[in-house]
């Protein structure tokens, strides 16, 4: 189950550096070979330079040698159900398949809804097409 991912995403959220939006987000992903990586959002005073929780988690995976994402959980302190932004959908897709599960979580209630990457990013721009 994804309860462990939710717990990791929630504790990552507590580390968010979000002094401008005051909107902490956490994410945790499991690779197809069973490794777990978590991340929080990191903002900067030059606002566009900040980045998302999902991006931090993906960076940890890449630094550990990369991999494929089997499932990922996302949680935001101030949203009952946090869905990845458009940019993160594209970044997740880079390491995912249309079947990859995305767990949309509530900070108190855990996993609220599970959707697939195929649903979140239909007709994705496919890196394989670049050759
Ligand atoms: N944020 C994420 O970390 N992930 C998302 O999928 C949506 C947005 C962050 C970025 C910014 O630090 C804050 O939430 C408010 O947009």
Number of domains: 1
Task: Tell me the name of the CATH class.
Answer: Alpha Beta
Shape field: globular
- The strand count comes to 5
CATH topology term:
Cytidine Deaminase, domain 2
Number of helices: 4
> Which ligands does the model contain, each kind named once?
tetrahydrodeoxyuridine
| CATH superfamily descriptor | Cytidine Deaminase, domain 2
Q: Spell out the helices and strands N to C.
A: HEEHEHEEH
Beta-strand content bin? 25-35%
Question: Numbering strands along the chain, what is their spatial order in the largest sheet?
Answer: 2-1-3-4-5
Q: In which range does the helix fraction lie?
A: 25-40%
Look at the structure and give the mean pLDDT: 96
Class inferred from helices and paired strands = alpha+beta
Query: Spans of 5+ residues with little confidence (pLDDT < 50)?
Result: none
Radius of gyration: 14 Å
The CATH architecture: 3-Layer(aba) Sandwich
The quaternary structure here is single chain
Helix and strand layout, with pairings?
Elements: H1 3-13, E1 25-31, E2 36-40, H2 53-63, E3 69-76, H3 86-94, E4 101-106, E5 110-116, H4 117-120
Parallel strand pairs: 3-4
Antiparallel strand pairs: 1-2, 1-3, 4-5
The structure holds tetrahydrodeoxyuridine.
Tetrahydrodeoxyuridine binds at residues 18, 21, 23, 25, 41, 43, 50, 52-54, 84-85, 88.
Describe this structure in words.
The chain has 131 residues and is an alpha+beta fold. The protein has one domain: Cytidine Deaminase, domain 2. Helix 3 links the parallel strand 3 and strand 4. The protein has helices at 3-13, 53-63, 86-94, 117-120, and strands spanning 25-31, 36-40, 69-76, 101-106, 110-116. The protein is globular, with a radius of gyration of 14 Å. It has a 5-stranded mixed β-sheet. 27% of the residues lie in helices and 25% in strands. Bound molecules: tetrahydrodeoxyuridine. Tetrahydrodeoxyuridine (THU) is lined by residues 18, 21, 23, 25, 41, 43, 50, 52-54, 84-85, 88.
């Amino acid at each position: 189950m994804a309860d462990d991912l939710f717990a990791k995403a929630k504790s990552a959220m507590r580390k968010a550096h979000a002094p401008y939006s005051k909107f902490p987000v956490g994410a945790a992903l499991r690779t197809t070979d069973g490794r777990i990586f978590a991340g929080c959002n990191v903002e900067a005073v030059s606002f566009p330079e900040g980045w998302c929780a999902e991006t931090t988690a993906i960076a940890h995976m890449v630094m550990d040698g990369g991999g494929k994402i089997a499932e990922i959980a996302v949680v935001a302190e101030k949203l009952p159900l946090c869905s990845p932004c458009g940019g993160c959908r594209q970044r997740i897709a880079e390491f995912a398949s249309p079947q990859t599960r995305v767990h949309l979580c509530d900070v108190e209630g855990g996993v609220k809804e599970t959707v697939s990457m195929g649903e979140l990013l239909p007709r994705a721009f496919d890196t394989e097409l670049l050759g």
